[in-house]
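Quick illustration, no need to memorize.
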Amino acid sequence: MLQLCYHKTLLEAGCDEAGRGCLAGPVFAAAVILPKNFKNSILNDSKQLSDEVRYQLRPLIEKEALAFAVAQVSNIEIDEINILNASFLAMHRAIEQLKLKPQHLIIDGNRFKAYQKIPHQCIIKGDGKYLNIAAASILAKTYRDDFMKTAHNNYPYYGWDTNMGYPTIKHRKAIKEYGVTPLHRMSYRLLPEQLKLELN
């Protein structure tokens, strides 16, 4: 059973990101502040839920949250500042957009760059422990999936409607055959050595 939040008395936002391991597209992050009386027996780490359930939960989270925000950092920015810094930046952008200023942050993972002077706590696998991080994980995941499904319409060879930009065999074969798109992260190892891409 997930706990609502880490800090029982402060106004707390849970934060999570989606898309760090992808070869293409932005990294997305969400920040969510849930009311103290929030309860949901289905809400969990987005990776533990089906696509259908995630999309059922998203409007419920958005309706019941005291505040929520979703933000992204583009693949161009990822290449410039690296994915770890891009993940922090995406979370910072989401926190900045919240209509309520949180007094405390809990972050999924083991590292975070402090946002302004708001105290924070990093929690490994926090999306499976706290409802506010789980809610953030669902928003980040579904908004990113929507982005990649739309991108698939422009670049249909890569299978982004199903792999969402992750390094599947189909995705890598398409990179080998058709080359890269403006959405690919050029700082990533897009192909293993046996499929090395000729860029000249």
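The longest strand covers residues 12-18.
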